[in-house]
Amino acid sequence: MTFEMIDTLQERVDIVETEAKLAQLKQEKAEDRARVVIDSFNTFCAKMEKDVFPQADEGEALLKAFGAVDVPSLKAKIQHKIDTEVQSQVLAREEISRQKIKILEADANQHRQACERREKDMVEAGVQLESQRQSITSLEVQLKNQEEQLSQARDKAEQTEQRLADAEAQLKEQRESSQKALDEVQKKLADAEAQLALRIYTQAEYSTAYLNGYGVARRLALHAAPDLDWYQCEIWAEDPKNPHMQQASQAEVDLLARLLAEDAAAKEAEMKEAEVQAPVQPASSAAEVDAALDSNLAGRPDPSAEA
């Protein structure tokens, strides 16, 4: 872009120089014409002095018209007028040429200053470009290091995934074995509960348990509801067909529902605890399970004793 502006400026300077030369040629041509006119006028004057002088009377009017008193003064005045006209034209052309040269010089200075500013901007842009190249090189080095680190991390992750897969396989096997052992324990517990449910008590044990339970229930009921008419309750209890004995109250229904919910929550908690401990603890042998089951059954209280 800078070279194009310089070429344009050079073309304008060439044009100005050409115009100056043209003006000079025109000035020379005008001077030649003036010289020819002067020569012609001199010839004319010579002829007038030779041929027309006798006709001076007629020429007197011409002299008066130009304000001359004689032919030489007329010639001098005409020559002065021609010189004045030629000089005014030359001065005018020179002034125009000077104005054009000043304008072109101002344009040239402006273009030169613009070129210097652009060169300075290009130098600064080169410095910034070099700085950016160095930054890009540094970033490329960092990216390469990060890619190496990422590759190492990917290898470690693959190794870790393989170890996790192996551990999951082992954990799955342990869970399966623990689940089998837990199923056996639950089955034996169910059998033990079934045996407890089918336990046969004597009439004396039933009577004792009933009386003890009845006494405990009466004491707790009187503590909970001091205004309770317990004699009326005894009368209802002696008649199995009494409506109060045939249908449970809302309080009893709520109590039984709450007890069932608590039993279910306790069983669920025991199963979750067994599932959590199963992968950690090895599967128990059949003898250990039987021993634990027997100890659990032995630790259960006798219903008659509780009553």
Major sheet: none
List low-pLDDT spans.
280-286, 295-307
Number of strands: 0
> What is the subunit organization of this protein?
single chain
What class would the helix/strand composition place it in?
Answer: mainly alpha
Average of per-residue pLDDT values = 77
Helix content range: over 70%
Query: What is the overall shape?
Result: rod-shaped
The fraction of residues assigned to DSSP E strands is: under 5%
Distance between the termini: 114 Å
Number of helical segments with 4 or more residues: 9
Rg value = 68 Å
* Order of helical and strand elements: HHHHHHHHH
Please describe what this structure looks like.
The protein is mainly alpha-helical and 307 residues long. Helices cover 88% and strands 0% of the residues. The protein is built from nine helices and no strands. The longest helix is centred in the middle third of the chain and has 127 residues, at 71-197.
